[in-house]
Every structure is written in C-alpha cells, then in structure tokens.
Write a structure and sequence with these properties.
By secondary structure, this protein is an alpha/beta fold. 34% of the residues lie in helices and 20% in strands. The strands form 2 sheets. A 7-stranded parallel beta sheet has the order 7-6-5-10-8-11-9, with helices on both faces. It has a 4-stranded mixed beta sheet with strand order 1-4-2-3. α2 links the parallel β2 and β3.
C-alpha cells in the first residue's frame, strides 16, 4: 500500500497501481488523479477517512491510498549504464523508510542507475518510503542482494570504483575523480558502514564539514555525492 496524492500519481504513470481508495474529503489534487485512473482503467473506490488512516498506519495520506504491484527487482549488473557511465548507490543497513525514500528521490533526480540494498531491508517498498520519495521510487531500479560485501566485489570485478562515504574517511569526496564508473556506499546513521563493507571500498571519503555538527543525514550525504559526480561528468 502507498499513500498520498503525488506518490500515487507517479505510481499510476509508471503502471504500478492496481486500485485506488479515495475519501470524500480528499486532497484537491485527487480530482486529477481520479481522472488519470479512469483513462488508465484503474478502479477507484470511496473509503472513509478512518479506513484510510488504518490502512496507511496513520500516515499523511491526503485522502488517497493505493494498492500497487511489487516493485520490479533488478540484478546489480542491470543498474550499470555503460553509455553514460555507471553511477549508483549501495545501502548498507539503511532501514528508515524516509531515508530510503529521500535517497531514491536523489537517485532519480541525478539520473543514477539505481539502488543496491539488502533483501532483508523492506523499507524501500513501504508507503512511507514512497511518500518520502514523492513517488520517484516508482522509477528507480532496485537491486536486492543477500550480501552487500559480495555485491561490491562483483561491481569491482565489472570495473566500478566503490566509494564509501564515512565521516572519518581520509579522502575528501571533492578530491576524487567521480567521472569513472562509481558506486557510492552509505551506512546507517549512528552505525555507519560495517567493517567488512569498508574493507571492500576502494576509497573511504568524507564530506568537508565547516560547521559544528560532525555529520549529515544519510539522504543529504547521498544527494551531495550524486550531484558532485553529475557536476564532474558534465564539466568533462
């Protein structure tokens, strides 16, 4: 189940929606959503606000909840775009669905190849993750893997440079050449990257911090890293 007007609109456009439930006092954007659903022959039914509250886990649903099919799963190698130069994100233990959703939004905005994440981390497909991504996750390719360290070894064998983002990293992100095939690895807030994952990285890079706070939210760090890579590639 996903919820909210914009996430549902994007899931509709991506062809993932099976059914939509709308309250009588829905968001003003629900009218255009219902119109699009009719054109796409997706059934829409009325529901009470209390029903939608229960289904969405009391999330900010704006009077709209949708049932969607499962997100298509990709192999890691399918995330590598050799025409534009591989650029992707690997999540090592990031479980907060809001962070996963925000990272997916940055991945989509930067035109990156997708996200590698562990199969036991279900945050990527929850309604909260879809809501946080503003629907962008409907377009982002996800490659679930059992073992992150093994996936990194496979990427390196394919010619992708692995950059772990770590506040204690000796290299500055801005000093690295990110025009080469690159995979950014991000760990959970508080825990950071696990030791075995760090050992698989070609570089451990930090963001130059000028303020009093030592680190950034993981989704903010992902966005900065992705767009630094985009900046370097556009200049080249």
């Amino acid at each position: 189940m996903i919820f909210g007007v914009n996430p549902t609109l994007e899931a509709l456009r991506a062809g993932h929606v099976i059914e939509i439930q709308v309250s009588e006092t829905g968001h003003r954007g629900a009218a255009s959503l219902i119109e699009l659903a009719a054109r796409l022959k997706v059934p829409v039914r009325r529901a009470t606000v209390s029903e939608l509250d229960r289904i969405s886990g009391h999330g900010l649903h704006q009077g709209v909840v949708a049932t969607v099919n499962r997100h298509i799963k990709y192999r890691v190698d399918e995330l590598l775009d050799w025409e534009t130069g591989p650029l992707l994100v690997v999540l090592d233990g990031v479980e907060d669905p809001r962070n996963v959703g925000a990272i997916a939004r940055a991945v989509d905005a930067a035109g990156a190849g997708g996200i590698v994440l562990q199969t036991r981390r279900a945050a990527a497909t929850t309604g909260a993750a879809v809501k946080a991504s503003a629907g962008a996750i409907s377009y982002v390719r996800l490659a679930p893997v059992v073992n992150i360290s093994r996936a990194l070894e496979g990427l390196k064998a394919d010619g992708v440079w692995v950059v772990g983002l770590d506040e204690k990293g000796r290299d500055s992100l801005f000093d690295l050449d990110l025009t080469v095939p690159t995979a950014f690895v991000l760990g959970a807030e508080g825990k950071g990257l696990r030791r075995l994952v760090q050992e698989r990285c070609d570089w451990l890079a930090s963001l130059p911090m000028q303020g009093k706070v030592a680190s950034l939210n993981v989704s903010v760090a992902a966005g900065i890293a992705l767009f630094e890579a985009v900046r370097q590639r556009q200049r080249r």
